[in-house]
Amino acid sequence: MNQRRFSVVDIGTNSARFLAVELGSGGSWKPLAELRVPCRLGEGLSAGGMLAEIPMTRAIAAVVAFKAAADEASAPIVRAVATHAVRKAGNRDAFLELLRERTGIDLETIAPRTEGRLSYRGIADYVDAGGDAKPARIGVIDTGGGSVQLTVGIADVPVASVSMPLGAVALTEQFGGPEQSASAQFEALHEHIAAAVEEGLARLPFLPARIYGVGGGCTSAGVLCRLKGAGKLIAGTEAGAKDLSAQIQASGAEIRELMRFIRPMTVAERSALPGLSVERAQILVPGLAVIDALLQRLRPHMMTTAHVGLRDGLVVETVEAVRVRSAARRQDRRTILQVAARTLADRCRAEQPHSGHVAMLAIGLHRDLVKLAEQGGIKKGRWCRRRSAAILHAAGLLHDSGVAVSYKGHHKHSEAIVLFNGLAGVRLEDSDLVAGIARYHRKGRPSRRHELYGGMDKKDRRLVRMLAGILRIADGFDRSHRQLASRLHVRMDDDQLVILGEPAERSEAVEQAMRDGKQELSAAAEKSDLLSRVLGRKISVAWMSSSPTSESR
Fold first, then answer.
1. Whether 123 contacts 309, CB under 8 Å
2. Fold (CATH) for 113-312
3. Listing from the earlier edge strand, what are the strands of the sheet with 247-251?
4. What CATH architecture applies to the domain 5-110?
5. Distances (CA, A) of 147 to 130, 169, 208, 545
6. What pLDDT digit, counting tens, does each position of 146-187 carry?
7. pTM greater than the 0.85 cutoff
8. Where are the alpha helices (DSSP H) in 15-157?
């Protein structure tokens, strides 16, 4: 995308949002125009499972207005996404086709985990989470009309997300309507939310230490808590600009007190309060109840709200893809893949020079194995292609990215991070292969029981096994993280493959390390199991200055 100005659109269950931006230098961007339309697309969806005609008409009108704003700003819409309401609707395809006919916009229906990732990227960019000297474990609560996402990550790297069926619009329709005056209805609502939250939190790899809240429910709660604390939550008054500031802290105790204050009111009484629209007043109580349930279970029982979210994440990821393509020397898939992998590895703070060195060793070993295959020494296959070498290189750069979460099980975390974040500007099938290869750089071999690997076709599984086998040995040859081997070579010895590590330099320190530690040879021999199995040959490893070790697979 060469356009310096562009726009994004987010069609949610309750509101539709538009953001036009202009790119600056170094990947920066600034907003040119912002619009929010409370089109309530999900109205009635819980009861009938279908998008109703009037909400669809409102949503289409909103997109027409967004397109006009994009034209006025000379910022074409490059990505438009829809979330829970469209995703769940039985007449989704009919709505998407109608919107395309009326506006010319292709609306992309995204998965809940994508919602969570985009909201996380938006807030992480806004607070510059990647610039923290000590990466924090962050949680982002995104309260929508149809669902609630809780996404956790390290600094600016989202790691995992859970979606809970706790959208404010859906809960309002399910439990007594906008006013929910009956205590029995509220108690049922409370129990329903508690069960869903407990189940959601149990699926996360860790709980966050810092919490941000995005989406209309969170930002409205923040404003109302500030006004109430200042004695300004009075009907008929207006909120000042300071009261509506971008970042507001709200504790769980303040949310509960606000809920007790709001709950007895009618919708008309709530709507008269400052900082609260009629549409938000109708769904406020369930939204507050969800935030309360989450903050009770998440330390430090406080969130910081900000008026950023999914649409900002769309911008961040679009800008990142532009930066990756700009940084690539050649605009081909292999070059873009390598730049994208380095970009994600840098965000994960993958240990350097270890990760880069392992990637380099893996490529050298791959090159020698390809030559051997061309000579008929081993069987050729897809793994011999240059694209496969680029995929292997990317997996080498990212194989330890999961250490950002925890060293224990970091191979699984590496797979999860690549799967969840993707690689900017790279095809999904390529990033999936990178994720799978990164996972198998240590511990168990590939298994059909593993979700990603088991879902691949036979050719991709074979490719993952071969490239992961190469990566394992390369990683073994840098077991001590001292970069003792400058390159790996392969030779045939009868029916056996001998993989030789070429010492980085002939210094006394290196010679002593090679004599004493033997970490590299031991690790490389142990990790040769997968490649040996794939090629059907025994493998031994050695330094070039010595005889092959007796350790083999």
1. yes
2. Nucleotidyltransferase; domain 5 (3.30.420)
3. 157-164, 148-154, 137-143, 210-214, 302-306, 247-251
4. 2-Layer Sandwich (3.30)
5. 27, 9, 20, 62
6. 889 999 999 999 999 999 999 998 899 888 777 655 577 888
7. yes
8. 45-48, 53-72, 84-88, 92-103, 112-126
